[in-house]
Amino acid sequence: MFGRTGDNHPMYERKHTKESIAKMSEAQRNINRTGENHPRGMLGRTHSVETLAKMSIAKGTTIYVYSSDKSLLINTFFSLSKAGEFYKAGKNTILKYAKNGKLFRGHWILSTFLIEKEES
């Protein structure tokens, strides 16, 4: 029992009978531990490509890539990591340029939000 140790524990200096052990063992054997019922969830399984993409979109920071004059949306990445892989840069570098609004590698403006075109 939680918090009760030593002399205070109800099973202190006692042993389960063979009959009790057999009953507990049988009860454990009858529990379905496959698939969704497995106590460790995804142990031994992998997520599908579609599921991984959905999780990336939900968890990631979307990066929008614009031309240097901000007139054209060139690319969209659903995570910093994907943008970093594409441009062969670290995700911290990508985030820094997305936040400060400076030209990234002299060609692109990175942003974490869509830039609305100004009406002229």
The average pLDDT value, as a whole number, equals: 85
Distance between the terminal alpha carbons, to the nearest Å?
74 Å
Outline, from the CA principal axes?
Answer: elongated
Fold-level CATH name of the domain at 49-111: Arc Repressor Mutant, subunit A
CATH class of the domain at 49-111: Mainly Alpha
Named at the architecture level, the CATH assignment of the domain at 49-111 is Orthogonal Bundle
Instruction: Name the beta content range.
Output: 5-15%
Helix content: 25-40%
Strand order of the largest sheet: 2-1-4-3
Low-confidence stretches: none
Number of beta strands: 4
Structural class: alpha+beta
Helix segment tally? 4
**Quaternary state of the chains:** single chain
**How much is the radius of gyration in Å?**
28 Å
Order of helices and strands: HHEEHHEE
Q: Biggest β-sheet, characterized? A: 4 strands, antiparallel
